Amino acid sequence: MAENATAYVSLEPCNHYGRTPPCTEALIRAKITRVVVGMVDPNPIVASKGVEKLRDSGIDVTVGVEEELCKKLNEAYIHRMLTGKPFVALRYSLSVNGRLSYQLGEGAKESGGYYSQLLQEYDGIIYSSTSISEKFVPTSQEAHLKQTLQIIIARSPNSPVQLPDFITDSASQVIIFADKDIVIDPEVSQQGIETVILGNLRLDAILDHCARRGLCSVLIDLQGNFGDLKELVEEGVDSGLLQKVVMEILPFWDEGKETLTLKKLEKRVLRLEKLHPKTSGQNVVVCGYF
Question: In Å, how far are 75, 127, 133, 142, 152 from 115, measured between CA atoms?
Fold first, then answer.
């Protein structure tokens, strides 16, 4: 069916055995006559070898078509290949008067909503154990898609880690990173949920563990009571571990007495690049890069 056809790929086809057989072999067997490649693979195992294999097999190969667009599409993979760490994005919501909000905008969690779709872009989502409740379910509602790995941060010794059934039912999709003083509910251990105890709960160590598990990207979600995440976010900014920001602006003025803040970061001027706004229902979502 593909004989004499042209294949368009955003990333150079691989020419080595890994989790799957070489993509180049599949293209050659299919008798493709031309391949248009968006960008060369930054992985040194692959870089240009896939293109060379296709050309040696008599296939016409064009490289660099819509290269910048392809780099944007593959940004997490590129970052992982160049740094060895997952690509990290920070998500939060703001009222129109600039206050951090506990909540998401209306419709954001529903199928087709920006938050539901955003979760599909990341291999893992980092959130605080103190935000866990029946109202907070960080799962995508998109149909027939794999759920992201849930990475729970437990730092407060006054809040023993207890997980509701909707989380423990998917134990293989959950990791708990806990401070050495944290009390873990015995039922959590019995569920087979992976728990990593760290003497110093730092973002750098968490990302190293995620990289060993093969994650290319993680989303830090400041939703609900995110107190356990403040130090991780500040470390991420100070150490250059954050690459992207996803900010949701909610259409209301927040006059609540309790104010959520990242005090250390409020004293700094952080300039974002490549800002891209879009609407999501009555809300505005702005993406930008450090």
Answer: 19, 14, 18, 10, 18
Report which of 9, 138, 135 is spatially closest to residue 61, judged by C-alpha positions: 9
In the chain, what are the domain boundaries? 6-73, 83-289
Which residues partner with 260 through β-bridges? 100
CATH-assigned architecture of domain 83-289: 3-Layer(aba) Sandwich (3.40)
pLDDT in tens, 216-232: 999 999 987 787 898 99
* Cα four-point dihedral sign 254, 260, 266, 272: negative
Provide, rounded to the nearest whole percent, the portion of the chain with pLDDT above 90. 52
Q: Which fold has domain 6-73?
A: Cytidine Deaminase; domain 2 (3.40.140)
Residue 276 and residue 288 in contact, taking contact as beta carbons nearer than 8 Å: yes
Question: Which sign, positive or negative, has the C-alpha torsion 61, 62, 65, 68?
Answer: positive
How far apart are alpha carbons 115 and 135 in whole angstroms?
15
Place of tokens 């993979």: 77
> CB–CB of 85/243 below 8 Å?
no
Tell me the per-residue pLDDT of 151-161, one tens digit each, with 9 for 90 and over.
999 886 655 56
Counting DSSP H helices and E strands in the chain, the numbers are: 10, 13
